[in-house]
Recover the amino acids of this structure.
C-alpha cells in the first residue's frame, strides 16, 4: 500500500505521446486502435470508471477477435503468454498501484499503450467515507491550487507537512495509521501524534469542501471536474507517466521507441494532465491523426528486433560498439544530481568524497561526478614572486591543492592544519582529483561541464590538465540551464577548452594576489594597520560608499510632504532646520504651509505606450532582490546558484539581456495558458551569442512550482526556502512581463507651486491604465498619482520626517554603479561587497552601507600612497585588459609584464610611505 508520495517519476523515455478526441464510443476506438497497431499492446482503463471496466474492455476486444486478457493482479502465466504471443493485448487499470502500470519490464514485447480515457482520480468529497491518507493527500493537493492569499499559505504548509510525513512512513505504519483512523482507534507515540494531526486536517478540509465558494471554484476550474456534486475528478499524471513508460524501456542499445495513445474522455482532466506534465520538457502531445503510423511502427519494431537478435546471439552485445562510456564532470553535487535524474533513476556511489552517479543518456553510458568547486589555487608557499615564478619575462604560476577543514569548513592551502581552528582533520582536493583520474581512465571520453563563464572555464582547464595523462579524450560541454534538453544538446555540441578565457582568469587571479598582498604588506609595515587587508577593485568601490555617506550627512534635514485637497501628495524636498527651538521651528513651518495655497499649472495629459523592462541580468537581479526582498547580493547569488543547479533558472551570472527561442517558447506557453494569448509579444532583447538573460526554464509560476513540489511530481536536490520562492517569483514575473505587449496609460505632467514659500516643482505620474499589457505582470516604471486639473488648492495635510536628499548606498545600488562604471563583473559583484563587509570596512544598517572608522583611515592611506594603483581609472583599464584577453585581442603575457612592473616598482621602490 506504500504509495510513494515523494517518488519522482521522471525518467528517460522515448515515447510518441498522441491524443485522440473520440468520434464514436471509446470502446470502438480501442478496438480500432488495437487492430491497427497489432500485438504487444497494453490497454489502460481509467480509475474513475471502476475496476469492472477492465473486464468490459477485455470482453469487447475478445468479441472482435482480439486475443486480450484482463491483468489486474501480477500473474506470471499471463505474462509468459503475452511474451510468446498467445496473448496480444493486456488490459489493466491506469493507477500507481496497477501491476500493469508499474514494474512491467518487457522491452521486447510491449510496443504501445492505449488509454481508454485520461488516467484520473475520483475522490469523494465526503472525507469520512472510506478514508485513506492518500485520498486526503490528492484531494488537498488539488484544492490548494484553488486558494488564494493567506488561505493558500496556510493550506500549502499543511500539504507540505502531509507529504513529508506520509513519505517517511513505512507501508506497514501507513496501514496501521489508516486502519486506526477508519476504526477510530488510538495509537501510541509518534503515530498517534500523526493520527491526531491528520484528523485535524481532515476535519478542517471537510469544512472547506462544504463551502459554496469552493464548490463553485471546482466547477469553474479549467482542470477539475465536480461529479454529482460529490466527487472530485482530476488527472493522475504519475499514472500516465508510469503506464506509458512501459512502452519505452532501457536495453543495451538505448531506450526502445514506444507509442502511447490517449483517448480524451474528459477535456478538463486532459488540460490538468498537460499542465502537470509541462515541466517535463520533452513530452509534447501530438494529434494521433497526424502521426505517421507506418514509419513509427517500423521504428518500434526495429528496436524489438535488435533486442531479439541480441538475445539470440545473432549479433553480439559488444557494448562499446553501441554505446560509449562518458564521464561528465561538474562542480556542484546538486548539479550532478539534477542532471543524473534527467535520465531515469541513477545509481549513486562515492569515491574519496566525490559523489558519482551512473546513468545512461543518449548514446552514452554516463557517469557524472562533482569536483566540489575549484580544485587548485595559487600557492601560498614562499615560491617565486607571491606564488608566481618570474624568470626572463616568463611567468609560471604555481598551484596548490585546496584543503577544507572537516571541523569548521574553512578552506586553506599548503598547511597541514586548519589555520582557523587548528584541527588536523581536513579533506584535500588531491584525493578528489585522484578519484576523478580513476574514473577518467575507465571512460571513452571525459566531458567537462563546469559553469559557462571564465571561472568555470578555468576549473575545466585545471581538471583537464590534471587528468590528461589518464584520459583518452577530453572535451568541454557548456549548458546555460540545467534542463534535460540543454544537457542533451550539450552532449552533441562538444568543444575544446577556450584558452583565452582561461588566460584571462589566470591573470585575474594573479593580479588579485599581487595587488592584494602588496597593498596589505605595505599597510602592515606602516605600523598603524595591523591585521587589515586591501585589494584593488574594492578600493574605488569603498571610495563611492565613503563619498556617498559624507553627502548623506551633509544634506540631512527634514522632508515635508503636503497633501492637497484633490488628494495629490507632493514632496517639498529637504529643509534644513537647525539650531535651538528646532521643534518650534518645525511646527511653525508646518502651520505656515497649512495656511498656504498650492497652485497647479501647465497640466499636460497624454496617452503613453509603455514597454516592459528587459529580463534580468545579474546586476539588475541583485538590485531588485535588495530593493524588494531585502536580500544581500551574497544571499541573492547563493540562492540563484541553487535555483540554477536545480534546473529552475538559466545561468545567473550574465550581463546579457538576450532571450533564446527556448525562452520565448516558455513565455508564450505561459501567457497563452494563464493570461491571454493576445498579450504575448516575442522580444529578443539582445544580441546573439551563447549567453542569455536570467529567466525561468519552464512555464511554471511560483504557485505551480510549490504545487508540483508538494505533490512530489518535482523533487529538487534541496528544500526550497522562502528566499528561493521569492527570488524565483521576481525572476519569473520580470521575464514573463518582458514577453508581453506594451501597456497603454494616461500620464499627467504638471507644475506645482506654493508661492508663499517660493516653492516650485514638476511632477509626473500615471493616473490611469487605459489598456493592460505587461502591467498585469509587473509594476509600471512611473508611480501612480490621482487625476488632477489646474487651479488653486488648499493644503489639507502636512507631515515631515528626518530625511536626506541622498542616502547611503544600498548593496543593490552599489552593484548597479559597478556595472555602469565598468568595475567588477557578474561573477564578482557580490564578492566585492562581501569582502568589504568581511574586512569590516562597511556595515549594513537598515539595508544601507555605512562605512566604519577603519574604512576612512585605510582608504585615505591607500589613495594618498597608491593613487595610481587603486584609482577607478586604473581598475577599469585592467578590467578592459581582461576582457580583451578573453576575446583574444590582447596577449596575456603583456598584461602580466605590465602588472609585474606596476607591483614591483611601486610597492617595492623606496618611496616614502605617508
Ligand atoms: Zn577548522
Amino acid at each position: 500500500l506504500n504509495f510513494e508520495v515523494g517518488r519522482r517519476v521522471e525518467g528517460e523515455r522515448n515515447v510518441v505521446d498522441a491524443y485522440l478526441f473520440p468520434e464514436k464510443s471509446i470502446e470502438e476506438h480501442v478496438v480500432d486502435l488495437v487492430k491497427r497497431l497489432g500485438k504487444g499492446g497494453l490497454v489502460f482503463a481509467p480509475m474513475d470508471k471502476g475496476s469492472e471496466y477492465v473486464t468490459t474492455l477485455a470482453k469487447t476486444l475478445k468479441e472482435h477477435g482480439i486475443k486480450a486478457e484482463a491483468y489486474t493482479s501480477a500473474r506470471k502465466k499471463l505474462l509468459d503468454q503475452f511474451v510468446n504471443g498467445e496473448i496480444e493485448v493486456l488490459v489493466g487499470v491506469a493507477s500507481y498501484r496497477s501491476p500493469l502500470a508499474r514494474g512491467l519490464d518487457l522491452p521486447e514485447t510491449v510496443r504501445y499503450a492505449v488509454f481508454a480515457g485520461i488516467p484520473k482520480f475520483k475522490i469523494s468529497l465526503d472525507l469520512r467515507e472510506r478514508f485513506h491518507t492518500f485520498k486526503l493527500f490528492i484531494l488537498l493537493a488539488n484544492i490548494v491550487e484553488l486558494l488564494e492569499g493567506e488561505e493558500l499559505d496556510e493550506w500549502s504548509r499543511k500539504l507540505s507537512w502531509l507529504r513529508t510525513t506520509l513519505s517517511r512512513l513505512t507501508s506497514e505504519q501507513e496501514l496501521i495509521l489508516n486502519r486506526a483512523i477508519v476504526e477510530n482507534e488510538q495509537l501510541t507515540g509518534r503515530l498517534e501524534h500523526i493520527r491526531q494531526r491528520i484528523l485535524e486536517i481532515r476535519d478542517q478540509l471537510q469544512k472547506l469542501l462544504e463551502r459554496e465558494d469552493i464548490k463553485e471554484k471546482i466547477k469553474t476550474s479549467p482542470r477539475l471536474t465536480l461529479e454529482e456534486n460529490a466527487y472530485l475528478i482530476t488527472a493522475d499524471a504519475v499514472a500516465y507517466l508510469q503506464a506509458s513508460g512501459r512502452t519505452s524501456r532501457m536495453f543495451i542499445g538505448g531506450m526502445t521507441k514506444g507509442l502511447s495513445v490517449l483517448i480524451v474522455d474528459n477535456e478538463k482532466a486532459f488540460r490538468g494532465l498537460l499542465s502537470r506534465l509541462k515541466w517535463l520538457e520533452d513530452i509534447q502531445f501530438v494529434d494521433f491523426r497526424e502521426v505517421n503510423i507506418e514509419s513509427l511502427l517500423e521504428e518500434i519494431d526495429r528496436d524489438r528486433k535488435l533486442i531479439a537478435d541480441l538475445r539470440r546471439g545473432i549479433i553480439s552485445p559488444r557494448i562499446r560498439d553501441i554505446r560509449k562510456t562518458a564521464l561528465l564532470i561538474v562542480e556542484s553535487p546538486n548539479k550532478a544530481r539534477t542532471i543524473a535524474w534527467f535520465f531515469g533513476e541513477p545509481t549513486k556511489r562515492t569515491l574519496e568524497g566525490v559523489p558519482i552517479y551512473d546513468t545512461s543518456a543518449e548514446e552514452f553510458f554516463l557517469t557524472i561526478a562533482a569536483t566540489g568547486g575549484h580544485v587548485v589555487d595559487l600557492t601560498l608557499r614562499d615560491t617565486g614572486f607571491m606564488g608566481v615564478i618570474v624568470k626572463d619575462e616568463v611567468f609560471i604560476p604555481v598551484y596548490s591543492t585546496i584543503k577544507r577543514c572537516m571541523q569548521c569548513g574553512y578552506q586553506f592551502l599548503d598547511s597541514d592544519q586548519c589555520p582557523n581552528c587548528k584541527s588536523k582533520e581536513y579533506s584535500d582536493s588531491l584525493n578528489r582529483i585522484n578519484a576523478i583520474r580513476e574514473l577518467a581512465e575507465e571512460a571513452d571520453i571525459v566531458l567537462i561541464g563546469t559553469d559557462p563563464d571564465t571561472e568555470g572555464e578555468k576549473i575545466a582547464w585545471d581538471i583537464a590538465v590534471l587528468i590528461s595523462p589518464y584520459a583518452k579524450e577530453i572535451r568541454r560541454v557548456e549548458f546555460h540551464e540545467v534542463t534535460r534538453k540543454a544537457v542533451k544538446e550539450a552532449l552533441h555540441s562538444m568543444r575544446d577548452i577556450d584558452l583565452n578565457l582561461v588566460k584571462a582568469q589566470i591573470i585575474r587571479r594573479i593580479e588579485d594576489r599581487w595587488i592584494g598582498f602588496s597593498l596589505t604588506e605595505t599597510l602592515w609595515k606602516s605600523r598603524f594597520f595591523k591585521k587589515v587587508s586591501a585589494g584593488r577593485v574594492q578600493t574605488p568601490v569603498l571610495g563611492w560608499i565613503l563619498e556617498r555617506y559624507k553627502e548623506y550627512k551633509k544634506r540631512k534635514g527634514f522632508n515635508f510632504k503636503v497633501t492637497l485637497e484633490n488628494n495629490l501628495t507632493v514632496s517639498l524636498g529637504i529643509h534644513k532646520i537647525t539650531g535651538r527651538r528646532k521643534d518650534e521651528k518645525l511646527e511653525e513651518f508646518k502651520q505656515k504651509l497649512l495656511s498656504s495655497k498650492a497652485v497647479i499649472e501647465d497640466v499636460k495629459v497624454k496617452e503613453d505606450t509603455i514597454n516592459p523592462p528587459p529580463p534580468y541580468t545579474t546586476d539588475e537581479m541583485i538590485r531588485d532582490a535588495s530593493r524588494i526582498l531585502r536580500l544581500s547580493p551574497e544571499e541573492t547569488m547563493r540562492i540563484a546558484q541553487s535555483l540554477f543547479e536545480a534546473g529552475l533558472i538559466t545561468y545567473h551570472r550574465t550581463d546579457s539581456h538576450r532571450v533564446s527561442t527556448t525562452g520565448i517558447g516558455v513565455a508564450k506557453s505561459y501567457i497563452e495558458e494563464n493570461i491571454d494569448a493576445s498579450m504575448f509579444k516575442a522580444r529578443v532583447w539582445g544580441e546573439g551569442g551563447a549567453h542569455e538573460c536570467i529567466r525561468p526554464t519552464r512555464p511554471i509560476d511560483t504557485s505551480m512550482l510549490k504545487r508540483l513540489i508538494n505533490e512530489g511530481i518535482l523533487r529538487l536536490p534541496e528544500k526550497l526556502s522562502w528566499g528561493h520562492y521569492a527570488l524565483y517569483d521576481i525572476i519569473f514575473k520580470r521575464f514573463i512581463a518582458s514577453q508581453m505587449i506594451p501597456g497603454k496609460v494616461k500620464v499627467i505632467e504638471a507644475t506645482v507651486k506654493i508661492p508663499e514659500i517660493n516653492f516650485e516643482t514638476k511632477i509626473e505620474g500615471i493616473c490611469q491604465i487605459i489598456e493592460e499589457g505587461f502591467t498585469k505582470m509587473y509594476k509600471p516604471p512611473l508611480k501612480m498619482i490621482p487625476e488632477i486639473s489646474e487651479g488653486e488648492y488648499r493644503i489639507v495635510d502636512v507631515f515631515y520626517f528626518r530625511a536626506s536628499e541622498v542616502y547611503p548606498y544600498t548593496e543593490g545600488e552599489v552593484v548597479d554603479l559597478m556595472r555602469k562604471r565598468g568595475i567588477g563583473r557578474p561573477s564578482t559583484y557580490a564578492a566585492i561587497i562581501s569582502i568589504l563587509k568581511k574586512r569590516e570596512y562597511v556595515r549594513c544598517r537598515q539595508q544601507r552601507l555605512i562605512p566604519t572608522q577603519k574604512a576612512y583611515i585605510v582608504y585615505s592611506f591607500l589613495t594618498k600612497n597608491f593613487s595610481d594603483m587603486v584609482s577607478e581609472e586604473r581598475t577599469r583599464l585592467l578590467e578592459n585588459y581582461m576582457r580583451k584577453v578573453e576575446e583574444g585581442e590582447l596577449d596575456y603575457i603583456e598584461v602580466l609584464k605590465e602588472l609585474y612592473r606596476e607591483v614591483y616598482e611601486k610597492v617595492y621602490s623606496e618611496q616614502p610611505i605617508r
